[in-house]
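Reviewers of the previous submission asked for a worked example of the structure-prediction workflow described in the proposal, so we include one complete record here. The input consisted solely of the amino acid sequence. No template or homolog information was supplied to the procedure at any stage.
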Amino acid sequence: MAKLQNRVALVTGAGRGIGRAIAQALASEGAKVAVAARTQSEIDSVAAEIKQAGSQAIAFCADLSDRSVPAKLAADVKEQLGPLDILVNNSGLGSSSNPKPVVEFDTDFWDQSLAINLTAPYLLSKAVLPDMLARKSGRIITVASINSRLGSFHGAAYAASKHGVLGLMRTLAQEVAGDGITVNCICPGPVKTLMNDRRIEYDAGRLGRDVAAHEAKQTPIGGRLDPEDISPMAVYLASDDARMVTGQAYNVCGGICMS
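From that input alone, the workflow returned the following structure tokens.
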């Protein structure tokens, strides 16, 4: 039997990359999946793929940098699919969009990064928790980063927001541990996504290296991860197999951080 049969899941940042892979993986295990992102064509595409595979999916266009959106998104998903069983906070803004040293850092970009990477997961979690608490059941999974544990050269906002989200989720895990709700993070290393492509190109140029050679040395195992390398951990954390796992941050990073 599918591990997530008839459970309702919301995956943010689901139009491409890690979020898309997680949404497809949850659906393949029987979940009814709401996919959300800013680009309508991308979420329509992933929803169509999930439906074509025989599962249920609905697309929601949502800009989570707007503080009014998370609560509305949660309410819309509940109205169309039912109360959420699984929330996957995956939307993120990477350092590659505007990399600079701290002394020259763009403060507007700092604010935007924290709004998407930290405040949005806080507001979405807050919005879905009342139903989870009432039912004494739920899974909140946040895609953090290996930069939740390590600095990010010329990426202060990204590293600060990803460090922050670990503290947020560990605090929430403590608060709801006795209520049937688990709260965990996944910390990916460099993954083959559009956002990370730009970071690889930036770092290669900054260091005077060939892009392909730089990419090949990104992890001790070699190269970068695929989005599908992250999704099995999300499925595990969403399932009953992980009922006694909470407050954890799992590195899926090709051996960059072995702790």
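The CA atoms of residues 123 and 220 lie 36 Å apart. We consider this example representative of the routine output the project will generate in years two and three.
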